[in-house]
Amino acid sequence: MAPSAPKAAAKTPNKKKNKKDKVFHPKSRKAGQLERSHLRKQKLADASGKRSKNLVAKADKYAFFFHALPPDIPSLSLPEIHDIIKSVWLVRHDSLIEVERSQRRPGRPQSARELALLEMKRQDEEVYRTAIPDLSDPQTVELFRAWEDRSHDPAYLHLLRTIRVSSTNPDSLVVEHIGAREEGTRKLEKVAQAKEKVNQANREASRKEAEIAARDASKMDLD
């Protein structure tokens, strides 16, 4: 029996060397560019996170007023808005805070939950320094009720007219934001007014031209 031919040695594929990350000198121009790029991205991420947090807090506050709004009225009076703030909004955490206090033994520090509730209550008191939906305006109330059809999307809230009210001067309010819908209406009104001015100027020019033509015709008749 003929001896079998020796097997060819299997070729071992050349392993590619892993590329090493290029290291730049800390004081080089490229290192400075990378550092600035990183800081810029970090600032954008922080700003985005802050905006998201503020939007969630705004939606929570607006959701409260949405559910506090009686379903069968076109709008609220200013005293009624203050009553909702004082009797419902500002005391909504009080019962839970009282439970935490009653369960705390004398001399013991406040629990994490009690501290969190107190912080939420403090933030709720900022309602007098921040904007709320203008529930005294029937058009805003109508738009606000439609928020439910948008699944309470926070992006919808910019359409609403918002106001600031004062605990020390409860008979006054300050318009914080006229609302995108009202702003659009005002822009259309301004466009219409500008168009009317142009038309009026054209009518005046036509009238003067007619007067001049009439005078010229009168002179020709006299001649």
Percentage of residues assigned to helices = 55-70%
The total beta strand count reads: 3
Major sheet: order of its strands?
1-2-3
Rg calculated over all Cα atoms: 36 Å
| Helical run tally | 6
Q: How would you sum up the major sheet?
A: 3 strands, antiparallel
The CATH superfamily of the largest domain appears as: Translation machinery-associated protein 16-like
Classified by CATH, the class of the largest domain is Mainly Alpha
* Global structural class: mainly alpha
Named at the architecture level, the CATH assignment of the largest domain is: Up-down Bundle
Q: Which runs of at least 5 residues are low in confidence (pLDDT < 50)?
A: none
Mean pLDDT: 78
Q: How would you describe the shape?
A: elongated
Any idea how many domains?
2
User: CATH fold name of the largest domain, please?
Assistant: de novo design (two linked rop proteins)
Please, what is the oligomeric state?
single chain
Strand content: under 5%
Q: Alpha-carbon distance between the termini?
A: 142 Å
SSE order, one letter for each helix or strand: HHHHEHEEH
Topology:
Blueprint: H1 29-68, H2 78-89, H3 94-103, H4 112-124, E1 132-133, H5 138-145, E2 162-165, E3 173-177, H6 180-222
Helix pairs in contact: 3-4
Plain-language structure description:
With 223 residues, this protein is mainly α. It has two domains: 43-180, de novo design (two linked rop proteins) (Up-down Bundle); 181-215. 57% of the residues lie in helices and 5% in strands. The protein is built from six helices and three strands. It has helices spanning 29-68, 78-89, 94-103, 112-124, 138-145, 180-222, and strands at residues 132-133, 162-165, 173-177. The protein has a three-stranded antiparallel beta sheet with strand order 1-2-3. Helix 3 (94-103) packs antiparallel against helix 4 (112-124). The longest helix has 43 residues, at 180-222. The chain is elongated, with a radius of gyration of 36 Å. The mean pLDDT is 78.
